[in-house]
Amino acid sequence: KMTQQMRDLQLAQARKPPGPSSPNAAKRLYRNLSGKFRVNYTSFDEGSLVGRGEKEKLRKSYLFQSNAALFEAVELQDLDRVQELLKHYSPEELDLNTPNSEGLLPLDIAIMTNNAPIARALLQAGAKESPHFVSLESRSLHLSTLVREAEQRVNELMAQVVNEAPNADCSEKEKQLKAWEWRFRLYKRMKAGFEHARAPDAPSSVHLSVASSSSLQVTFWEPLSVNSAVVTKYRVEWSCSPTFSPLLGEAVIDKLRDLHFTIQGLVSGTAYHVRVAAYNMKGWGPPQASTPPCAIPSNWREYDGRAPRRRGQAEALDHLLGQVKTVHQHCICHEPCKNQPQSRKHSVSKSLKHLFHPGSKFLKTLKRGLYLTAIFYKDDNILVTHEDQIPVVEIDDTYSCLLMQDFLWFTKVSCMWDEILWLRQCVTVSQSSCSCILQTRFKMLLAISQMQGLLGIQDLGQVFFEPIKDKQGNILIVTLKEVKTNQTFESVRWVPICKLQTSRKSVSSPEEPTALDMLLVSVQDKLAYHQRSSHALSPGLYLGYLKLCSAVDQIRVLVPERLPNILCHVKIRSNPNISREEWEWLQKMASVEEPVPTEPEADTSQNPLFQELQVAIKELMALVNIPLQEAKDFRLYSQEVLDFGDQVSFLLLLPPSDDVCTAPGQNNPYTPRSGFLTLPLQIFELGEE
Fold first, then answer.
1. Residue 71 domain-assigned?
2. Which one of 47, 261, 436, 594 has the lowest number of neighbouring Cβ atoms within 10 Å?
3. What is the span of the domain harbouring residue 564?
4. Other beta carbons less than 10 A from residue 599's beta carbon
5. Distance CA 659, CA 449 (A)
6. Do the Cβ atoms of 372 and 451 come closer than 8 Å?
7. What pLDDT, on a 0 to 100 scale, did the predictor assign at position 338?
8. Whether residues 391 and 507 fall in one domain
């Protein structure tokens, strides 16, 4: 018999013992598993174990228990228990795809009892159907065998219970009888579910889009009717012929967390037809053709053969820096660079002891001048000196008016923390000119070197986008860096931010706080800005809004507070690629000076990009508080698509030419709602990098 052969196979492979024989036993097992067995195995006292082999046996026994509990939870149709087990154990630990003694997998039981929620949970965890069911006939025969054997076992136990006198053995046989009656009903329900099911309908929708010049993306949705059986996989087929003859390729998708697939390795400029079919335990259903029926792999750059803007730029900058270094390598000032200490190689825990060295030159209070402070934080803690002060060093005690050009120069230097010593020595050569600007910048480099030396850390992090100024003439440049390591440093004080704020005694009045007091009050906001500025967008195509405002010494750009390294934006779609066909349509709109599409038109209503842009523009105008009718005078930037890597791209929406940049004193009638800020353009460019 097939069932007996499978059982023999299981015994030969030394598989796990059979699970509990009744629903009550399953519940008891699950309770034990939830409390007693769900532990960290490494927390046991290894001295109490005879050896590594015994410890491994104990671990395996827990995993066998968890596997048996999973089978019982699926049989009892207990979704909560199934989800709990999948959460606490990996598929390997659960033996998720190893058949039990009846030749069944957890997913088999779920789909044959038509329990869609449990089946989906198992599928998302990587569950498969039993490989023994190679055909509909083999599955039907196997289920019939299980039902017949269960019925035979019930009849045997019933006869024994009736004929035997009441005793302990009889009581045990009654328990076995109840368990087999329950299992008999389960197998009959599974057999009826299989016989009632039919192959699934076609997927309800299949969307085809151009992912690149050599790939297409297929997104599909579940059938409206699965015909009483859960869909367990999909098949994607593609061909150059609308009849799909010959077939160029196919792919079976059995990981159903996301219903999409990217067809790679296609020929640019060639039209491909795509269709998708669904599968359940009764077989494959009819295929559903994609919408649109075909697509041509392409990219907007093919329109005019344009190369990526940033191709080779990083290499060119490295080469240019190398040339500059070569020019200075024979200078006397450059000789000490050969003996530059490799502070990177020093452990952070050792170098941070400088914070507590009595001879450190960190400042406690500020006098009139220019200063640098470095904020290192981990979770809600902040690094302080031995006197519970944020590390501060002096840049220039005679400098009371920070020019924006000097500050922006400092932010650029922050991209070269590793080159500070070399930069400082090169500036020393030029200092003979007695330029005030060079002297100030040389002092900035000195202060950076001092901070790096005292902390023992070269990377001081990101510069906050504006310095802190107080009425006493103090100016504080702030750098921020998150420490993500879990290492415990010796002799280093990590102080909770709230404790530092409450314990510091202010030396200024509330009406005229010092720069340090202002820093402590706003430190959470600055840390939040630093964390948000490092967030990345999810893959997709976005519509960005470019709005500038000018001042006497700078131009600032409008950005959202939640993501200050990106322009104000909304997502158009998840596919970041603009195809050549879509770019040609955008160029046509720009050439005839068409207004931004805010209302549907008859000849473009079938253009997916047109419809997506309509929705995105309405959402973006509402976001920045601009009436929709004003958008008719706005323009889409048609010179290029802004690509940020391979996964994120932007189309830019521009106000009328006269309104792109608001001049000093010019009123902006449409002020964005809260949640926005303006950054100096150079700071934004550094963050966007």
1. yes
2. 47
3. 540-591+605-680
4. 8
5. 44
6. yes
7. 43
8. yes
Task: Give the chain's domain count.
Answer: 4
User: What is the 3-state secondary structure of 320-363?
Assistant: HHHHHHHHHCCCHHHHHHHHCCCHHHCCHHHHHHHHHCCCCCCC
The identity of residue 568, as a single letter, is C
Residue 104 lies in a domain: yes
CATH of the domain at 420: 3.90.79
- Same domain for 268 and 384? no
d(C-alpha 267, C-alpha 286), whole Å: 28
Same domain flag for 587 and 505: no
Structure tokens at 357: 């060295």
Instruction: Specify the 3-state DSSP secondary structure of 180.
Output: helix
Residues in a beta bridge with 497: none
Q: Which residues of the chain have pLDDT under 70?
A: 1-64, 165, 167-170, 328-360, 400-402, 428-435, 486-492, 504-509, 593-606, 665, 667-673, 688-689
526 and 581 part of one domain: no
Phi, psi of 590 (to 5 degrees): -70, -35
Same-domain status, 402 and 529? yes
Confirm whether 4 is domain-assigned: no
Q: What is the CATH classification number for the domain harbouring 61?
A: 1.25.40
Residues 397 and 524 in one domain: yes
The per-residue DSSP string of 68-113 comes to HHHHHHHHTT-HHHHHHHHHHS-HHHHTTTS--TTS--HHHHHHHT
Scored b (16 or more CB within 10 A) or e, 157-179 reads beeeeeeeeeeeeeeebeebbbb
Please check whether residues 103 and 237 belong to one and the same domain.
no
Q: What is the DSSP letter of 381?
A: E
The structure tokens listed for 102 are: 């009846």
Residue 465 domain flag: yes
Q: What is the pLDDT of residue 330?
A: 58
- What is the identity of the amino acid at 78? D
pLDDT tens-digit series, residues 346-392: 444 445 544 544 445 788 888 888 999 999 998 888 888 888 888 99
H-type helices in 241-312, by residue range? none
Q: Which among 295, 279, 183 is positioned nearest to 232, based on CA atoms?
A: 279
560 & 612 share domain: yes
From start to end of 213-356, where are the E strands? 215-221, 233-239, 249-253, 260-263, 272-280, 283-284, 288-295
**In this structure, how many other beta carbons lie within 10 angstroms of the beta carbon of residue 636?**
18
Quote the pLDDT of residue 144. 94
